[in-house]
Design brief:
This protein is α+β, with helices and mostly antiparallel strands. Among the domains are: 31 residues, no CATH class; 38 residues, no CATH class. Helix content is 37%, strand content 24%. The protein contains one helix and five strands. The longest helix has 41 residues. The termini are far apart. About 6% of the residues have low confidence.
């Protein structure tokens, strides 16, 4: 068993290639390291690689979505913080915090 921890560099990429008609490989070019996932040489190896690649695809998509959502939340919080620092106050309507009835009040607006 081998455990590897890497981070992609600026030129990182992923590619699928066939070395022969029977030998598929997924290669992660991490810049500068590379990791290749090939067909296991055991009975059922093709099904095993297919299952792994589908799981890798699903989990990578989930992680990318979570990271984008986290970045969007941080951006909204930064905007909210700038509005408060800029002299604006957020007035909420009755009900739950963050209700759709949010209103902006700028005390410097005459």
């Amino acid at each position: 068993m081998i455990n590897v921890s890497c981070a992609p560099g600026p030129a990182a990429a992923v590619g699928a290639k066939w070395h022969t008609a029977e030998l598929p490989t997924l290669v992660m070019y991490l810049d500068p390291e590379s990791i290749a996932f090939g067909l296991p040489s055991i009975p059922g190896g093709e099904e095993m690689l297919v299952r792994f690649l589908r799981e890798l695809s699903r989990e990578a998509a989930n992680l990318a979505t979570q990271m984008e959502q986290k970045r969007a939340i941080a951006a909204r919080q930064a905007v909210d913080g700038q509005a408060i620092e800029g002299g604006q106050h957020r007035l909420r309507g009755s009900g739950e915090p963050g209700a759709a009835r949010d209103v902006w009040f700028d005390p410097t607006d005459h």
